[in-house]
Design a protein that fits this description.
Blueprint (H helix, E strand, L loop, with lengths): L8 E8 L2 E11 L2 E8 L4 E2 L5 E2 L2 H20 L7
Antiparallel strand pairs: 1-2, 2-3, 3-4, 3-5
The protein binds zinc ion.
Zinc ion binds next to α1.
């Protein structure tokens, strides 16, 4: 992970249409979290690591970013809630 020098924690892995994604989060300062996704199929990292006040919030935001990648690169639309 090269986004920033922080302690990234692996949070979850999910699978869309056989393409696997890893999602990592870290606490960048007191009470501010950042999330990043990595597509394991093409090893692309999310260009934008969203930040937010809870882990749940940044996980949700990172899924939205991964969804755009999935649509553009893998040509599949997925529902994200
Ligand atoms: Zn990909």
């Amino acid at each position: 992970m090269t986004l920033i020098n922080a302690k990234w924690q692996h949070r979850k892995q999910f699978d869309w249409d056989g393409v696997q994604y890893d999602v990592l989060t870290c606490e960048i300062s007191n009470g501010v979290f950042q999330a990043a996704w990595v597509c394991l199929d093409c090893c692309e990292e999310g260009a934008l690591a969203p930040s937010g006040k809870t882990v749940d919030e940044v996980l949700r935001l990172s899924r939205i970013g991964a969804r755009v990648h999935h649509l553009l690169i893998h040509g599949c639309n997925v529902e994200v809630n």
